[in-house]
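Model it.
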Amino acid sequence: MAPADLTLVGGNGKRPTESSTEIVSSGLLGRCNTNSILYTDGCQGWLKAAKTSYRMKRFSVRSVVHKKSEWTKKCKVKGKAKLAGTQVLDRSWMWLKKIVPHALKNRNDKVINPRLWEYIYQFVYRHNQKD
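Modeled.
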């Protein structure tokens, strides 16, 4: 887990996609193995962060663009045909949202609610205990 800084938006506003600066400051890429493949949803910040700040890790970035109704993409990984997409992360996100009570507010005074972290870490623990 690597939380990004909160970006506050008004009423029904939509949060913009994460910037390369936010990605780098989260420290997430620093915890990924060298030569990892990053599967993104088209956000250009991931490509920029991987190619600039984490150049030495030699990441490959594969993207699908949901705005174009693109959910998977064929690509080659070590010479073998593979199917890239964000469906593994999307499925995990779905299960995480199911264990967090609807009544729990995600923020208290502009910071992430500490109770929310309890549910997140519980989910991560359970998810990693699968056989």
